[in-house]
Design goal:
Length: about 350
């Protein structure tokens, strides 16, 4: 019986400009293909031939033309046989070579390729359009594609700001180093200082809700009027502390208290840290829950205890505790007032802003 014929599978090993080496699955033999820069075959220097020869094009054995997706390319002439489908949109007066609709990659086949017969023109138009307007701090320009309205692009050299315009509408893709999805996120309506001891996302959400309640007219008016009535701060801090809610929120720093914090972390003495820790850790025994503390010597660092985020409960009469009241109490500390002065107003604070419960 005659020996069965095996199928031969060829393996092409291309580089950026074409397939130079072809191997197979049957043995260790191979053949090479050599071309001139525009794809003309050098048969005397080749040991074989395949239809994949020049860049990614498919060469016809019958016509000798390369199929370039959108048109055909003639490697013997070094040009396309049809004009660029993009028409004059693929040209630019800044590059006379692009005015020839039949030219291959601007007549620079060593450094450029054109995978689909129109890519080079579109790419050149895009790049050339970007750099039509150079300034020290911004690069801007526009480009067109077929019958689509011009697209304009502008960006700073460090790419921290990128803007795009289309059909008369402009928008920021990147602004101040933030991409569009980040810019669309709800932004804080106040300047907010998160401390180095961070909160969970849920806790941040609770704080935001509490601040929005404090910023309402009822609590805001009471707080600012109370600061005026209290007069000169009775703490050993400067008497020029902020007297409005917005300035207090800019001034204050919100931190999360956890028992593992050291005196160095909290920037206080070890004795002070121990008193705070003892109050927090023995809260269940003392039946007095510590919710927050504002620490010196600057008295701007508010530490919220985990208990400040506990949900309301009738257990041990904690149902009236309110995070907005807790934060308002501490903002009065930031304004420069001590416990004795603030506690005189506890009833009014609870009525207008929420119950602060037990604050250190």
């Amino acid at each position: 019986m005659p020996e069965a014929v095996k199928n031969i599978v060829q393996y092409h090993h291309p580089d950026r400009l074409g397939t130079k080496l072809v191997t197979n699955n049957l043995d260790t033999t191979s053949f090479s293909q050599a071309n001139l820069p525009f794809g003309t075959a050098l048969d005397t220097e080749s040991t074989g031939a395949s239809n994949r020869r020049f860049t990614s094009y498919d060469r016809s054995v019958t016509t000798g033309l390369d199929y370039a997706v959108n048109r055909h390319y003639d490697p013997r002439q070094g040009r396309f046989t049809q004009p660029d489908p993009l028409g004059m949109a693929a040209s630019s007066l800044a590059d006379p070579q692009s005015l020839n609709m039949y030219s291959y990659v601007g007549n620079d086949p060593v450094n450029r390729i054109d995978p689909d017969g129109q890519f080079w023109g579109a790419l050149f138009k895009f790049i050339a359009g970007l750099f039509t307007n150079l300034k020290p701090n911004v690069i801007s320009g526009s480009f067109t594609y077929k019958n689509v309205p011009p697209i304009s692009v502008a960006f700073t050299p460090n790419f921290q700001n990128i803007g795009v315009g289309f059909a008369g509408v402009g928008f920021d893709l990147r602004l101040g180093g933030h991409w569009l999805p980040d810019l669309l996120q709800p932004q804080e309506s106040w300047v907010f200082n998160w401390g180095i001891h961070d909160f969970t996302d849920a806790e941040r959400g609770r704080i935001r809700q509490a601040i929005e309640k404090i910023k309402g007219d009822r609590c805001r008016n009471w707080l600012e009027n109370t600061i005026k009535n209290l007069g000169r701060p009775d703490l050993s801090v400067e008497s020029t502390r902020p007297k409005t809610l917005d300035k207090l929120l800019e001034y204050a720093e919100f931190n999360k208290y956890v028992p593992k914090l050291t005196a160095k972390d909290m920037r206080i003495s070890e004795d002070r840290r121990k008193r705070i820790a003892d109050n927090y850790e023995n809260a269940w025994t003392n039946m007095s829950i510590a919710n927050a503390v504002t620490l010196g010597p600057d008295y701007i660092r508010i530490y919220l205890m985990p208990s400040a985020f506990w949900q309301d409960s009738n257990l041990f009469n904690w149902s009236g505790r309110d995070l907005s009241g807790i934060i308002t109490f501490e903002l009065l500390h930031v304004a420069g007032f001590g416990d004795d002065a603030i506690w005189k107003y506890r009833g009014a604070l609870q009525q207008h802003c929420g119950d602060p419960s037990d604050n250190l």
